[in-house]
């Protein structure tokens, strides 16, 4: 199975930090030697670049000019550009294991990753980890750098938060768990200030959470929480869903991507103290507009009364799973 560290290695290889015009090579040997053994130079004089070598300015131009074959695509991240330019100006700082210290953001999307392995700990300064649209079902917190501030796991197969909450990154500000397989009420206990003391943003959208009151009783301990996304869960079908959340979590600023204005908060004031309004059931009306591939009853000749002809009966069953 694919691991995060293997995907991260592929990401660094793709950047080509050790290849021309980056890295250490014959194209910048003199410049590197000068930094290793500096000597006094007369003011206003610059040593000529030997044949076959390039100045740092010329190498940077090869990275920045979009007509260059070594230019990064326009949609690359700011970190990609910074790393590539640093590999030109100070390649010795990104040589070997040192490169792991320079990476602060890893975005590995739809790469077939199944495991968050301990190799990720080599990124000791990592602040953002985005692993959306992979096949991750379990995240071990011991394998996450303690410096993480953003952890995005949208569109995976996470069904249990116990391993993630064993020793979570203490400075985490955003936790994205949308489009996973979380089921209540066993998971709510992991969403408290004891595990996430600095959490500002939480995305739990499109899971299978059903216990609104139980979830709110845990979320109310997250005093730094300002952004919450719960849409797509069965509990969002409750008629008083939004009002109950707005009144129960006064620190919230945005709920389900919609800003909470003072007028709305005033309108729902006191709703949190009326739990009897929270119904544990919902009614869903399904209308079938068209069905294809079924025999048309009118196409069969009507049998006369008393006829001994065969009678054919068709029955159909439609099942909905909630």
UniProtKB/TrEMBL annotation:
Record's Gene Ontology CC terms? cytoplasm
Q: Which InterPro entries match?
A: Leu-rich_rpt (IPR001611), LRR_dom_sf (IPR032675)
Q: Which UniProt keywords apply?
A: Leucine-rich repeat, Repeat
Q: Indicate whether rRNA-binding appears among the record's keywords.
A: no
**Per its UniProt record, what PANTHER family does this chain match?**
LEUCINE-RICH REPEAT-CONTAINING PROTEIN 51 (PTHR15454:SF19), NISCHARIN RELATED (PTHR15454)
Under which name does UniProt file this protein?
Answer: LRC43 protein
């Amino acid at each position: 199975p694919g691991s995060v560290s293997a995907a991260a290695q592929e990401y660094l290889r793709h950047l080509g930090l050790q290849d021309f015009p980056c890295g250490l090579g014959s194209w910048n040997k003199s410049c590197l030697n000068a930094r290793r053994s500096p000597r006094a130079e007369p003011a206003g004089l610059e040593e000529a670049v030997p044949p076959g070598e390039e100045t740092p300015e010329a190498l940077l131009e090869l990275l920045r000019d979009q007509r260059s074959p070594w230019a990064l695509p326009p949609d690359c991240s700011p970190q990609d550009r910074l790393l590539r330019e640093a590999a030109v100006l100070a390649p010795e700082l990104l040589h070997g294991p040192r490169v792991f210290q320079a990476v602060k953001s890893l975005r590995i999307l739809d790469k077939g990753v199944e495991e968050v392995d301990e190799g990720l700990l080599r990124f000791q300064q990592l602040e953002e980890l985005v692993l959306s649209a992979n096949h991750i079902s379990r995240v071990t917190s011991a394998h996450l750098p303690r410096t993480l501030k953003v952890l995005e796991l949208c569109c995976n197969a996470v069904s249990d938060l116990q391993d993630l909450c064993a020793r979570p990154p203490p400075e985490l500000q955003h936790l994205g768990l949308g489009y996973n397989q979380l089921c209540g009420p066993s998971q709510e206990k992991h969403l408290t200030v004891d595990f996430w003391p600095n959490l500002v943003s939480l995305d739990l959208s499109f899971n299978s959470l059903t216990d609104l009151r139980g979830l709110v009783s845990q979320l109310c301990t997250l005093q730094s929480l300002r952004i919450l996304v719960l849409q797509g869960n069965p509990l969002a079908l409750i008629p008083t869903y939004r009002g109950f959340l707005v009144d129960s979590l006064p620190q919230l600023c945005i709920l389900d991507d919609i800003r909470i204005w003072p007028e709305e908060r005033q309108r729902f004031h006191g709703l949190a103290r009326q739990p009897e309004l929270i119904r544990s059931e919902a009614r869903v009306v399904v209308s079938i507009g068209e069905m294809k591939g079924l025999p048309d009853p009118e196409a069969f000749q009507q049998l006369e009364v008393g006829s001994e002809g065969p009678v054919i009966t068709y029955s159909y069953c439609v099942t909905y799973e909630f």
